[in-house]
Amino acid sequence: MKINSLLAQQLDALLTDEHNNVANMANASALLMQELPDVSWTGFYTYVDDKNELILGPFQGKVACVHIKNGSGVCGTAFDKNETIRVENVNDFPGHIACDSNSKSEIVIPIEKDGIRFGVLDIDAPIFDRFSKEDQEMLEEFVKVFENHITIDN
Question: Which residues share a beta bridge with 61?
């Protein structure tokens, strides 16, 4: 896999030879918080199959919602549809879950490896329309690199 963005290259170098998913999510969310301007929250939700919900994983930012039902809010909808959702104004998203009232825009990218659904990467911003199409492409590449470093327990 050819890695184009500097952020994805940094992530690949950071996660190489580390096989602990929690450690990798922690470092990935810290890298995003450090490198992305105008964001207020970066983190992961992992999927719990027997409960059909996403549960809070490592993140950077203010306290967050712990349980999100599959199909609920931006995170649950992106996971359910298995597609990136970029929201210019979270107040306009039907069923938006407001963990932080200062959040104005959001992007959520689903994560899977070898056909196994892992969870989502969630990033919030305190300004409207923070995430461009170019940001989406760069963050989707970031997630692809992250997926290469996930350890799936069968």
Answer: 41
